[in-house]
């Protein structure tokens, strides 16, 4: 094990790196072909953090955490592989058992002290992140960080290359880990190796609004940004959300409408956002599932001023979002997956993770006290991620926007009552 850094300051420190791979070698020459939807996400990464109490995790050692990974990696060998390119330039994964990076660190706070911070984006410091590249053959696809709190509690942070799979895939992977930890035997369905998981919605020939081509990035898979981005997160109850529009049953769509209107108030004029992207879990692909990108990517375009519109009109338009996966797939197919794109933040993007079963990852039959998940590599238009909270009646929201807009948007959120209690408590 090599010590990579020992920070003299900061609440999280003492980083050490090692490598974990499968318990048995993968058959020689095994490869995993990426789909066009996978490759559309290749400049994006997921950061997820699971925090467990001292009562639950105090006795867990590094080997307790590592050991279940051997069995999971044996079931899903491509996530410990490395990217290569075909002669055409199209990326694929060589399942060569190079493994994932495992990071150990310590935190000077207790779990209770850490969770007392209202803005949960602080959890991103519990995720070790490195992008894929510039040498594809040496870049791990996931990083797992184990942080021990002063009280004995534990945070397990996952840095996950989105090209491998969507948030439900990340959750599925970590739930498999928790099942092996509990002594279960697992049998994971194999990936379809390029099979499409969606139908043509009869929009052939229409360029999808939800994807943006960017200048070639080569073998360093990092999304370009023209603006400095800031992140802010907050909790609120389903009751608080419904109070704005009790006639609509879809809490996510109501919340999207409220926040879209708040952002539109800040971007009034030529920069006002009239086209957004909606990303939600594919209910047809949740169980049983393999690790893949099967999320529904939809677009909403309106011909009215969102800042001036009433919430009912905005929410209605969100409910009529158009599935654009087939168009994204066609673009990728046309150049054999060589071009580079961004999805999150290409247009203002709303991400519904409320159906992802993060809290099923139990240790000693106890769910995590908190789960955080966000997207890294968000484009300049920004993104809003909505998560389930530890309490069923709550939702957890993370907003990533250009830094120059963030304080104005927070003020709009305060005016409409979404973060009043939070700001008063700061």
Automatic annotation (TrEMBL):
This is Uncharacterized protein. InterPro entries: CAT-like_dom_sf (IPR023213), Plant_Fungal_Acyltransferase (IPR050317). The keyword Glycoprotein does not apply. It holds the Pfam family Transferase. GO terms for molecular function: acyltransferase activity, transferring groups other than amino-acyl groups. It comes from Arabis nemorensis. Coiled coil: none annotated. One of its GO terms (biological process) is very long-chain fatty acid biosynthetic process. PANTHER family: PROTEIN ECERIFERUM 26-LIKE, TRICHOTHECENE 3-O-ACETYLTRANSFERASE. Belongs to the plant acyltransferase family. The keyword Signal does not apply. Keywords: Cell wall biogenesis/degradation.
């Amino acid at each position: 094990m090599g010590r990579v850094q020992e920070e003299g300051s900061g609440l999280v420190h003492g980083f050490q790196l090692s490598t974990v791979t499968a318990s048995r070698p993968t058959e020689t020459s095994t490869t995993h072909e990426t789909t066009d939807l996978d490759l559309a996400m290749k400049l994006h990464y997921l950061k997820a953090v699971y925090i467990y109490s001292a009562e639950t995790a105090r006795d867990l050692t590094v080997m307790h955490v590592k050991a279940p990974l051997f069995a999971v990696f044996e079931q899903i060998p491509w996530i410990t592989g490395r990217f290569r390119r075909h002669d055409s330039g199209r990326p694929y994964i060589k399942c060569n058992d190079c493994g994932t990076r495992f990071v150990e660190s310590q935190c000077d706070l207790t779990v209770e002290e850490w969770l007392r911070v209202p803005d949960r984006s602080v959890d991103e410091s519990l995720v070790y992140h490195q992008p894929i590249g510039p040498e594809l053959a040496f870049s791990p696809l996931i990083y797992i960080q184990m942080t021990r709190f002063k009280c004995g509690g534990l945070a397990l942070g996952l840095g996950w290359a989105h090209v491998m799979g969507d948030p439900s895939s990340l959750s599925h992977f970590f739930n498999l880990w928790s099942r092996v930890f509990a002594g279960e035997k697992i049998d994971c369905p194999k990936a379809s190796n390029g099979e499409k998981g969606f139908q043509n919605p009869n929009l052939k020939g229409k360029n999808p609004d939800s994807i943006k081509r960017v200048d070639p990035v080569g073998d360093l898979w990092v999304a370009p940004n023209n603006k400095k981005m800031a992140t802010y997160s907050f909790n609120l109850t389903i009751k608080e959300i419904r109070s704005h529009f009790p006639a609509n049953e879809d809490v996510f769509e109501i919340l999207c409408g409220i926040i879209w209107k708040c952002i539109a108030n800040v971007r009034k004029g030529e920069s006002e956002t009239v086209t957004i992207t909606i990303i939600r879990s594919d209910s047809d692909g949740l169980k049983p599932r393999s690790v893949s990108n099967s999320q529904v990517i939809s677009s909403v375009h309106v011909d009215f001023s969102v800042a001036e519109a009433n919430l009912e009109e905005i929410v209605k338009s969100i409910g009529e979002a158009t599935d654009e996966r087939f168009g994204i797939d066609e673009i990728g197919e046309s150049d054999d997956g060589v071009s580079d794109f961004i999805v999150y933040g290409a247009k203002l993007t709303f991400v519904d993770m409320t159906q992802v079963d993060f809290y099923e990852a139990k240790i000693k039959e106890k769910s995590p006290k908190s789960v955080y998940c966000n997207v890294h590599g968000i484009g300049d238009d920004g993104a809003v991620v909505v998560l389930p909270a530890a309490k069923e009646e709550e939702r957890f929201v993370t907003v990533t926007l250009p830094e120059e807009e963030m304080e104005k948007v927070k003020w709009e959120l305060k005016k409409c009552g979404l973060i009043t209690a939070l700001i008063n408590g700061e």
